[in-house]
């Protein structure tokens, strides 16, 4: 139980710290009109790591079990790849603005943050141990 409380406290401090840093980067971006790479990449990494932190308690418990580490490709391909596209969609504009993406592939920017959380969660939860 103490492990979950410590993880919750660390998760809370992580979001407070990264939100403060994110606000400072957004203000810098508004003052200089340069959102890329600092603000855009920071938001991407912030939510990706946040999703991974959600899995840490069960990952620590799984680490104590005997067996070989495996990666569930089906789980990641079915849920992780669509989440990867939806999460990183906004970066395509900044990295390669000359590439035109068909209009039916455009998504709302409001989907980026939940999809990055989901991607971090799916990525780390795709690892498992197979008993020998």
TrEMBL record:
<keyword id="KW-0812">Transmembrane</keyword>
<feature type="transmembrane region" description="Helical">
    <location>
        <begin position="107"/>
        <end position="128"/>
    </location>
</feature>
<keyword id="KW-1133">Transmembrane helix</keyword>
<keyword id="KW-0472">Membrane</keyword>
<feature type="transmembrane region" description="Helical">
    <location>
        <begin position="35"/>
        <end position="56"/>
    </location>
</feature>
<feature type="transmembrane region" description="Helical">
    <location>
        <begin position="76"/>
        <end position="95"/>
    </location>
</feature>
<protein>
    <submittedName>
        <fullName>Uncharacterized protein</fullName>
    </submittedName>
</protein>
